[in-house]
Specification:
The protein is an all-alpha fold and 206 residues long. It contains ten helices and no strands. The chain is elongated, with a radius of gyration of 20 Å.
Length: 206
Protein backbone atom coordinates (compact mmCIF):
# COMPACT_ATOMS: atom_id res chain seq x y z
CA UNK A 1 0.00 0.00 0.00
CA UNK A 2 1.34 3.43 -0.89
CA UNK A 3 2.42 5.62 1.96
CA UNK A 4 0.71 8.86 2.90
CA UNK A 5 1.88 12.00 1.04
CA UNK A 6 4.67 13.75 2.87
CA UNK A 7 4.66 17.43 3.73
CA UNK A 8 7.36 17.99 1.11
CA UNK A 9 5.22 16.29 -1.53
CA UNK A 10 2.25 18.44 -0.55
CA UNK A 11 4.34 21.60 -0.89
CA UNK A 12 5.60 20.47 -4.29
CA UNK A 13 2.04 19.83 -5.45
CA UNK A 14 0.90 23.28 -4.32
CA UNK A 15 3.88 24.90 -6.03
CA UNK A 16 3.09 22.98 -9.25
CA UNK A 17 -0.49 24.20 -9.17
CA UNK A 18 0.74 27.75 -8.61
CA UNK A 19 3.17 27.46 -11.53
CA UNK A 20 0.61 26.25 -14.08
CA UNK A 21 -2.14 28.36 -12.53
CA UNK A 22 -0.07 31.51 -13.03
CA UNK A 23 0.26 30.72 -16.73
CA UNK A 24 -3.47 30.14 -17.03
CA UNK A 25 -4.31 33.33 -15.14
CA UNK A 26 -2.03 35.34 -17.42
CA UNK A 27 -3.58 33.74 -20.52
CA UNK A 28 -7.26 33.82 -19.56
CA UNK A 29 -7.72 36.18 -16.61
CA UNK A 30 -9.70 35.38 -13.44
CA UNK A 31 -13.16 35.24 -15.08
CA UNK A 32 -12.26 32.70 -17.79
CA UNK A 33 -9.70 30.87 -15.65
CA UNK A 34 -9.86 27.22 -16.75
CA UNK A 35 -9.18 24.94 -13.82
CA UNK A 36 -9.56 21.83 -15.97
CA UNK A 37 -6.67 22.95 -18.15
CA UNK A 38 -4.50 23.66 -15.12
CA UNK A 39 -5.17 20.19 -13.73
CA UNK A 40 -4.48 18.54 -17.08
CA UNK A 41 -1.19 20.34 -17.70
CA UNK A 42 0.05 20.10 -14.12
CA UNK A 43 -1.15 16.48 -13.79
CA UNK A 44 -2.66 17.30 -10.42
CA UNK A 45 -6.02 15.86 -9.38
CA UNK A 46 -9.10 17.89 -8.49
CA UNK A 47 -8.99 16.50 -4.96
CA UNK A 48 -5.47 17.91 -4.56
CA UNK A 49 -6.61 21.31 -5.81
CA UNK A 50 -9.39 21.35 -3.24
CA UNK A 51 -7.10 20.03 -0.53
CA UNK A 52 -4.58 22.82 -1.00
CA UNK A 53 -6.78 25.73 -2.09
CA UNK A 54 -10.36 24.72 -1.16
CA UNK A 55 -11.74 25.68 -4.58
CA UNK A 56 -11.03 27.17 -8.01
CA UNK A 57 -11.52 30.62 -6.50
CA UNK A 58 -9.10 29.78 -3.70
CA UNK A 59 -6.39 29.00 -6.25
CA UNK A 60 -7.12 32.24 -8.11
CA UNK A 61 -6.91 34.19 -4.86
CA UNK A 62 -3.54 32.62 -4.07
CA UNK A 63 -2.24 33.44 -7.56
CA UNK A 64 -3.42 37.03 -7.43
CA UNK A 65 -2.04 37.45 -3.92
CA UNK A 66 1.36 36.18 -5.04
CA UNK A 67 1.30 38.56 -8.01
CA UNK A 68 0.43 41.53 -5.81
CA UNK A 69 3.05 40.43 -3.29
CA UNK A 70 5.73 40.66 -5.96
CA UNK A 71 4.54 44.18 -6.71
CA UNK A 72 4.72 45.03 -3.00
CA UNK A 73 8.31 43.79 -2.84
CA UNK A 74 9.14 45.96 -5.85
CA UNK A 75 7.45 48.98 -4.25
CA UNK A 76 9.37 48.40 -1.02
CA UNK A 77 12.62 48.36 -2.99
CA UNK A 78 11.69 51.77 -4.46
CA UNK A 79 10.80 53.06 -0.99
CA UNK A 80 14.12 51.83 0.33
CA UNK A 81 15.92 53.89 -2.30
CA UNK A 82 13.89 56.96 -1.33
CA UNK A 83 14.70 56.45 2.34
CA UNK A 84 18.40 56.09 1.64
CA UNK A 85 18.23 59.34 -0.32
CA UNK A 86 16.35 61.24 2.37
CA UNK A 87 18.23 63.97 4.22
CA UNK A 88 16.12 63.79 7.35
CA UNK A 89 13.11 62.03 8.83
CA UNK A 90 10.78 64.74 7.54
CA UNK A 91 11.47 63.59 4.00
CA UNK A 92 10.58 60.03 4.98
CA UNK A 93 7.30 61.25 6.43
CA UNK A 94 6.61 63.22 3.26
CA UNK A 95 7.20 60.17 1.07
CA UNK A 96 4.91 58.06 3.27
CA UNK A 97 2.14 60.65 3.27
CA UNK A 98 2.29 61.02 -0.52
CA UNK A 99 1.97 57.25 -0.84
CA UNK A 100 -1.04 57.10 1.49
CA UNK A 101 -2.83 59.93 -0.29
CA UNK A 102 -2.03 58.47 -3.71
CA UNK A 103 -3.33 55.06 -2.66
CA UNK A 104 -6.87 56.41 -2.38
CA UNK A 105 -7.51 55.78 -6.09
CA UNK A 106 -9.28 52.84 -7.77
CA UNK A 107 -6.16 50.63 -7.84
CA UNK A 108 -5.61 51.05 -4.11
CA UNK A 109 -9.26 50.31 -3.33
CA UNK A 110 -9.24 47.22 -5.56
CA UNK A 111 -6.01 45.90 -4.04
CA UNK A 112 -7.32 46.27 -0.50
CA UNK A 113 -10.56 44.49 -1.33
CA UNK A 114 -8.71 41.62 -2.98
CA UNK A 115 -6.40 41.35 -0.02
CA UNK A 116 -9.39 41.06 2.30
CA UNK A 117 -10.82 38.36 0.01
CA UNK A 118 -7.53 36.49 0.19
CA UNK A 119 -7.44 36.62 3.97
CA UNK A 120 -11.01 35.32 4.17
CA UNK A 121 -10.26 32.49 1.73
CA UNK A 122 -7.19 31.58 3.75
CA UNK A 123 -9.33 30.54 6.70
CA UNK A 124 -10.75 27.61 4.73
CA UNK A 125 -7.42 26.24 3.48
CA UNK A 126 -4.33 25.56 5.55
CA UNK A 127 -2.13 25.59 2.44
CA UNK A 128 -3.53 28.91 1.26
CA UNK A 129 -3.19 30.30 4.77
CA UNK A 130 0.48 29.31 4.73
CA UNK A 131 1.03 30.99 1.36
CA UNK A 132 -0.57 34.19 2.65
CA UNK A 133 1.38 34.03 5.92
CA UNK A 134 4.74 33.48 4.20
CA UNK A 135 4.12 36.36 1.81
CA UNK A 136 2.97 38.62 4.64
CA UNK A 137 6.00 37.74 6.74
CA UNK A 138 8.43 38.45 3.92
CA UNK A 139 6.83 41.79 3.06
CA UNK A 140 6.67 42.84 6.70
CA UNK A 141 10.31 41.96 7.30
CA UNK A 142 11.38 43.99 4.26
CA UNK A 143 9.34 46.96 5.44
CA UNK A 144 10.77 46.58 8.95
CA UNK A 145 14.28 46.79 7.47
CA UNK A 146 13.38 50.16 5.96
CA UNK A 147 11.98 51.38 9.26
CA UNK A 148 15.18 50.26 10.99
CA UNK A 149 17.18 52.35 8.50
CA UNK A 150 14.96 55.33 9.32
CA UNK A 151 15.44 54.84 13.03
CA UNK A 152 19.20 54.28 12.92
CA UNK A 153 19.78 57.30 10.68
CA UNK A 154 17.38 59.84 12.13
CA UNK A 155 16.13 58.79 15.58
CA UNK A 156 18.81 56.47 17.04
CA UNK A 157 17.48 56.91 20.58
CA UNK A 158 14.03 55.59 19.66
CA UNK A 159 13.11 52.28 21.27
CA UNK A 160 10.09 51.56 19.08
CA UNK A 161 9.98 47.91 17.87
CA UNK A 162 10.19 48.39 14.10
CA UNK A 163 8.65 45.02 13.29
CA UNK A 164 5.65 45.98 15.38
CA UNK A 165 5.43 49.29 13.55
CA UNK A 166 5.60 47.43 10.24
CA UNK A 167 2.60 45.25 11.10
CA UNK A 168 0.78 48.19 12.69
CA UNK A 169 1.02 50.31 9.55
CA UNK A 170 0.02 47.43 7.29
CA UNK A 171 -2.98 46.61 9.46
CA UNK A 172 -4.08 50.22 9.12
CA UNK A 173 -3.68 50.08 5.35
CA UNK A 174 -5.73 46.87 5.07
CA UNK A 175 -8.31 48.28 7.48
CA UNK A 176 -8.57 51.29 5.19
CA UNK A 177 -11.21 49.28 3.33
CA UNK A 178 -13.63 50.68 5.93
CA UNK A 179 -12.70 54.19 4.79
CA UNK A 180 -13.07 53.14 1.14
CA UNK A 181 -16.66 52.03 1.74
CA UNK A 182 -17.92 55.47 2.75
CA UNK A 183 -16.39 57.15 -0.33
CA UNK A 184 -15.86 60.43 1.49
CA UNK A 185 -12.76 62.52 0.67
CA UNK A 186 -12.95 64.27 4.05
CA UNK A 187 -12.82 60.93 5.89
CA UNK A 188 -9.88 59.83 3.74
CA UNK A 189 -8.02 63.04 4.54
CA UNK A 190 -8.67 62.64 8.27
CA UNK A 191 -7.54 59.01 8.15
CA UNK A 192 -4.22 59.95 6.51
CA UNK A 193 -3.73 62.75 9.03
CA UNK A 194 -4.24 60.37 11.98
CA UNK A 195 -1.97 57.68 10.49
CA UNK A 196 0.82 60.22 9.97
CA UNK A 197 0.38 61.59 13.49
CA UNK A 198 0.66 58.04 14.85
CA UNK A 199 3.81 57.37 12.82
CA UNK A 200 5.45 60.62 14.02
CA UNK A 201 4.56 59.76 17.60
CA UNK A 202 6.00 56.25 17.29
CA UNK A 203 9.30 57.68 16.10
CA UNK A 204 9.17 60.51 18.64
CA UNK A 205 9.41 63.14 15.93
CA UNK A 206 9.23 66.55 17.61
Amino acid sequence: MAGRPTRANGRATAERLMEFGAKELERSGPVDFNLERVMRLSKVSRSSVYHHFSSRDGLIVALEFEHRHRRVVEDIAVLRGMVLGAKDISQFFSVTERYLRGDAGPNGVRNRRRRIEGLVAGHSSKQLQKILADAQREGSDLFAEILEIVRSRFVPNSTVPVRGVSYFLQSLIVGRVLVDIVEDDAVTDEWVTVVMASLRHLFDDK
